[in-house]
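Submission sheet (multi-component)
Chains listed below:
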Amino acid sequence: MRLVVLGSAAGGGVPQWNCACENCRAARAGRIAARTQDSLAVTVDGERWVLLNASPDLRVQLAATPALHPRAARHTPIAAIVLTNGDIDHTVGLFSLRESQPLAVYSTRAVWRGLADGNVLTRTLERFPGQLVFRPLEIGHPTSIADPAGAPTGVEITAVAAPGKLPVHLLRSAPSREDNIALLLRDRAQARLCAYAPGVARVDDELIDALAGASCVFFDGTFYYEDELQRRGLGAARAADMAHLPIGGPGGSLTRLARLPARRRIYTHVNNSNPILDPSSEERRAVDAAGWQVAEDGLEVLP
Amino acid sequence: MRLVVLGSAAGGGVPQWNCACENCRAARAGRIAARTQDSLAVTVDGERWVLLNASPDLRVQLAATPALHPRAARHTPIAAIVLTNGDIDHTVGLFSLRESQPLAVYSTRAVWRGLADGNVLTRTLERFPGQLVFRPLEIGHPTSIADPAGAPTGVEITAVAAPGKLPVHLLRSAPSREDNIALLLRDRAQARLCAYAPGVARVDDELIDALAGASCVFFDGTFYYEDELQRRGLGAARAADMAHLPIGGPGGSLTRLARLPARRRIYTHVNNSNPILDPSSEERRAVDAAGWQVAEDGLEVLP
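Outcome: structure written.
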């Protein structure tokens, strides 16, 4: 199994279009790495790739990643797309995968309903019957990920319910445990397990148990502090209001996940407000010292 | 009046994600300029900018354009967004303008209905009452473009009906002459007129008359040949099927617009299949010889 980080930022990216905080200014000036929005690509055979989430930056992410370039006049190495929730920053990239290419999309039924019901834009991916094939993920059940024609990619995924929240545009809907998931990725040949949990409001026993078997964990690095937006003068919302467990503090993920056996632990989905984006910050040193890495766009990982 | 080309490619951009044609390969290898999807930014006072179309690449286009960077923790120099039609490549960028920033959007009523009716995603731009202000453009009537609070930008726009077609995702709707427009931009102080017509199926008298008063014309450069996709082995659709007048040939725009008095004539919205993307091509030489320029991302124009 081989993973590539296509994007390592939370919604809005780094820099964010309407933000001139310290990190956004540093990213514009090239003093810290710019980051596109959260997405991973994974392959077992090196030929067929599975996208995990479809960020609004997908077009430029694909252009920057030679392994995902087409190998014929009309072709894509992308066999399937898996969505962890229905957030704008995880789904809008689907509309960049038009041009009559067959697509296989996997998500929970709740996420798919939120995206496809009453959303006229998805018709752009339905130019001919069968162009877009939706296949549901059932929480707790391993699914072999296949291309639109049904050929398996060798990647097996198990959805794990992760405490989260509905996307802002769906807040009038009834919440469900299918709204937000983490993914356990298995390469059947190597029996290696990798976890991807880019949005986590709380770590419960179910999630800890799921992460405990993974040799590599990508985890929600949105905020370092519960009151990070207030500290930086960027807004009143707290991390909990936005359904993201902060990294630091007594109940933060550094503490809660300290005993995970994973060899690689990587924070991703990092918000522009997060001090760990600056390699010289105290918070980044705390993360480094605890054996965590901060994802950057283009990072390759062999779990 | 000052204009910046944010993106100069047709839908899909150059390179296009699933295309390995000659131009897309050349763009990936850096032999020809890569291009993001069609959008312009225009200002009169150098402070407040109006976006013409919101491409899926908007986040990276803004990051690449210092004049459009925020000047405070939460700020944007973007006063308004004007849409010429409801195509995915002209509208999806709206979803990158979230983060609770007030927005003023101008388009015809038909385009706005197609985008907002039955499209749950637009709720992400309605986080508080009045966040998104829609103001209609009436064909043939000059409109002073103002920011969300109503302060004028100094840019005045007149919508001109341009023969085109409905976006693919709206093909079941009844067509209207409001579906696709060209824009006449006027800087009242200088009395200069600039035209922007990125999608034109046919040049009729109404459009010719409108373009005749402009000192600068941005025009649909999608295809050079009527059968360009077939010639390149990229598909069966003809330029007419996709509602784009080709540049070349007896009825093409080079011939049809030869007598326009405009000092600057610029082809934009250029498809990845178009040979004019290669500066050494015969077709590019024909365009150059006729006094037309081919837009590139970042090009600045003072009409």
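Remark: Chain B touches chain A through 57 residues (CB under 8 Å).
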